[in-house]
Amino acid sequence: MKRDGYISWDEYFMGISKLSGMRSKDPNTQVGACIVSEDNKILSMGYNGFPIGCSDDEFPWEREGGTLETKYAFVTHSELNAILNYRGGSLAGAKLYVSLFPCNECAKAIIQAGIKTIVYECDKYADTPSTKASKRMLDAAGVRYYQYTPTGREVTLEL
Predict the structure, then answer these.
(1) Strands of the chain, DSSP E
(2) DSSP symbols for 13-82
């Protein structure tokens, strides 16, 4: 007889998404993403950070200031990183697990990549124009999204 208490697919992939976010060097926001095939195989992962070749020590991490003095003009979000990191064929029909609801720019990439489902942990920017635009586009394109429901299970990694 199989054991009880094993984790669900949503727990597993959201956990991987959150672990991926721990790679981010952003001092304020660490977001991770994990893209999964329809048969629950991991296709790609990503986290928010600067593009390859752009030094984490030379580009700004600030949240306030002029456009070129903040991170916003330079950081690649986790969802886009996961899409760009994918080395296979099509992402059509895939599911995206992400720790923060996608912005409008990431929503465009998600839709264009053919991802059909988003499972997100947090939607703290729900009232912003970016997130409202994101949801409008996702709804129009038929991309399903739902919030991950934590189980309260604690996982500890000793590294």
Answers:
(1) 32-36, 42-47, 95-100, 117-122, 144-147
(2) HHHHHHHHHTT---SS---EEEEE-TTS-EEEEEESBPPTTS-TTTS---SSSSGGGSGGGTPBPHHHHH
Which are the catalytic amino acids? 79
Angle made by CA atoms 53, 107, 153, in degrees to the nearest 5:
85
Pairing outcome for strands 117-122 and 144-147:
parallel
Q: What pLDDT is attached to residue 152? A: 87
For residue 33, what are its two tokens? 């993403």
Strand intervals (E) in 85-151: 95-100, 117-122, 144-147
pLDDT at position 156: 79
Output the six-digit token pair for 63: 């949240």
What is the value of pTM for the model shown?
A: 0.94
Stretches where the chain sits below pLDDT 70 are: none
